[in-house]
């Protein structure tokens, strides 16, 4: 018998993507993409610009409907459940390259907003939750600063805290450090790696291979809208990967 400590819900993938296609006009952007992410796992997705990585995340989050195929989230096909999108998005946090914070709100207000508006939490409860999250992302002293008074690395950590405030079951990160100055990349990746090690199920589009080495359970290589390689971290860094993935890695490392 395998690992008896796992519950049924942990054995079943949290997210199961089966053969999704997505076109914009005549251009097919995603081609029969299939991926599984189990609860507590971190998947890193790499691949050239234009290969469909952001589109894939946007389909998972229902910001774009997939044309066909299935996206099972906790066993339910959400691929075209656009009516349920707000409810599903509550359970899937997303962090973007350019932070996308509300500029007219302070750091802590950015984090408090959704718990109050969407979950109906009281102001004082939302404040407590936000303060704990500010500690978690290691900038409690910046609670009352506005986004334009914060560094890029600090803004991105606020964006992560804001996503976590909804207690998501899955976090999606779309190139979260690619708009940052090099000295700030580490502070953001450290927070993400800590969350992963604590069991936050995550899909991370990034070319930070140091992060992948530290935090990824699976590494996926996409090219031209296709999943070309999907390997465990050990297989991937052990060199038993597809030749196109290897060539891509040689370019970015
Ligand atoms: P990546 O994140 O890997 O760089 P994207 O998913 O952003 O790739 O984009 C893949 C392709 O899809 C690109 O050629 C892009 O121009 C195209 N694309 C993305 N979103 C749209 C859209 N809303 N309408 C038309 N084309 C789009
Ligand atoms: Mg992208």
Itemize the secondary structure elements and their pairings:
Blueprint lengths: L7 H4 L3 E10 L2 E11 L4 E5 L6 H8 L7 E6 L2 E2 L7 H7 E4 L11 H11 L5 H14 L15 H13 L5 E5 L7 H16 L4 E4 L3 H7 L2 E6 L2 E7 H5 L5 H10 L1
Parallel strand pairs: 3-8, 3-9, 6-7, 7-8
Antiparallel strand pairs: 1-2, 1-4, 4-5, 9-10
The chain binds adenosine-5'-diphosphate (ADP) and magnesium ion.
Magnesium ion (MG) binds next to helix 2.
If you had to describe this structure to a student in words, what would you say it looks like?
- By secondary structure, this protein is α/β, with parallel strands linked by helices.
- The protein is built from ten helices and ten strands.
- The strands form two sheets. The chain has a six-stranded mixed sheet, sandwiched between helices. The protein has a four-stranded antiparallel sheet with strand order 2-1-4-5, covered by helices on one side.
- Strand 7 (170-174), helix 7 and strand 8 (202-205) form a beta-alpha-beta unit.
- Helix 6 (152-164) runs parallel beside helix 7 (182-197).
- The protein is globular.
- Bound molecules: adenosine-5'-diphosphate and magnesium ion.
- Residues 24, 29, 47, 49-55 line the site of adenosine-5'-diphosphate.
- Pfam families: ABC_tran.
- Residues 15-249 form the ABC transporter domain.
- Belongs to the ABC transporter superfamily.
Strand arrangement within the widest β-sheet reads 6-7-8-3-9-10
Unreliable spans: none
Major sheet = 6 strands, mixed
The N- and C-terminal alpha carbons lie at a distance of: 41 Å
Number of helices: 10
Task: Describe the global form.
Answer: globular
Task: Estimate the strand proportion.
Answer: 15-25%
Series of secondary-structure elements, N-terminal to C-terminal: HEEEHEEHEHHHEHEHEEHH
Going by helix content, strand content and strand pairing, the class is alpha/beta
Enumerate the distinct ligands: adenosine-5'-diphosphate, magnesium ion
- DSSP strand count: 10
**Rounded radius of gyration (Å):** 18 Å
Percent of residues in helical segments? Answer: 25-40%
Overall mean pLDDT: 93
């Amino acid at each position: 018998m395998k690992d008896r400590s796992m519950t049924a819900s942990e054995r079943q993938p949290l997210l199961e993507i089966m053969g999704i296609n997505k076109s914009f006009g005549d251009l097919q952007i995603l081609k029969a993409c299939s991926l599984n992410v189990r609860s507590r796992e971190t998947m890193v997705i790499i691949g050239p610009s234009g290969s469909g990585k952001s589109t894939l995340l946007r389909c998972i989050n229902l910001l774009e409907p997939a044309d066909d195929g299935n996206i099972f989230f906790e066993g339910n096909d959400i691929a075209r459940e656009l009516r349920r999108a707000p409810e599903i998005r509550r359970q899937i946090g997303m962090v973007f390259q350019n932070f996308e914070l509300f500029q007219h709100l302070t750091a802590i207000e950015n984090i408090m907003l959704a718990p109050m508006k969407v979950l109906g939490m009281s102001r004082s409860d939302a404040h407590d939750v936000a303060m704990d999250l500010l500690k978690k992302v290691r900038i409690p002293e910046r609670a009352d600063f506005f986004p334009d008074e914060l560094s890029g690395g600090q803004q991105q950590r606020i964006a992560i805290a804001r996503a976590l405030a909804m207690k998501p079951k899955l976090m999606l990160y779309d190139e979260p450090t690619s708009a940052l100055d090099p000295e700030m990349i580490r502070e953001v990746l450290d927070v993400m790696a800590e969350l992963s090690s604590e069991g936050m199920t995550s899909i991370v589009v990034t070319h930070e291979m140091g992060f992948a080495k530290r935090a990824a359970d699976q590494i996926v290589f996409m090219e031209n809208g296709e999943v070309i390689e999907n390997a465990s971290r050990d297989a991937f860094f052990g060199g038993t990967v597809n030749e196109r993935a290897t060539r891509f890695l040689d370019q970015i490392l």
